[in-house]
Amino acid sequence: MANPVDATPWPPEQVETMGPGLVCEWYCDRRIIVYRLTSIVRETLNAWVDTVAQRLQTWPKDRPYLALHDISSRRVGLSYLALVNYQVFNLGVTASGWEKVEPILAQRPNFSARVALLFGLTHSGHLGQVLTQRSSANTRVCDITFQSFFDREQALNWLLKINCP
Fold first, then answer.
1. Secondary structure of 37-101 in the HEC alphabet?
2. Would you say the C-alpha torsion 126, 128, 129, 133 has a positive or negative sign?
3. b/e per residue, 74-97, with b = 16+ CB within 10 A?
4. How far is it, in rounded angstroms, from Cα 37 to Cα 71?
5. Which domains, and CATH codes, for the chain?
6. Cα radius of gyration rounded to whole Å, the chain
7. Rounded mean pLDDT of 101-119?
8. For 59-81, how does the pLDDT look when each residue is reduced to its tens digit (9 = 90+)?
């Protein structure tokens, strides 16, 4: 199976390995960040939570936060769904991550975000998308829009619509 990054018509501008099982990719002049998970162990989740909090802290205040949470790798999607009790529309990634993110967002009343969630084309990916369609987005503090996808290019295009010509 091809690497999902190779399936996009444009390569990432920058790739950073944040820890075992977590890679960050930048697109559109660092206006879009992709968090790509290749494993879902506690260490990976902790690194993801910490990285999201750090990125939000330094995100330019004049730009919407545009992110793709790529949980399409084999054995990642369903495990993540179970670990977060199917509450995947959470900017902080986990319940404890939301506790880190909420004070950051409270200091930014005009903060807005679009977050795409990418599932694999597996049985668990289809189950994940069905379950997320029944969830409501976490908008307790700010204007945050979530959308789930099976196709990486469609997810990136949905994010690009708001920000890049």
1. ECCCCHHHHHHHHHHHHHHHHHCCCCCCEEEEEECCCCCCHHHHHHHCCCCCCCCCCCHHHHHHH
2. positive
3. eebbbbbbebbeebbbbbbbbeeb
4. 6
5. 14-163 (3.30.750)
6. 14
7. 91
8. 999 999 999 999 999 888 878 87
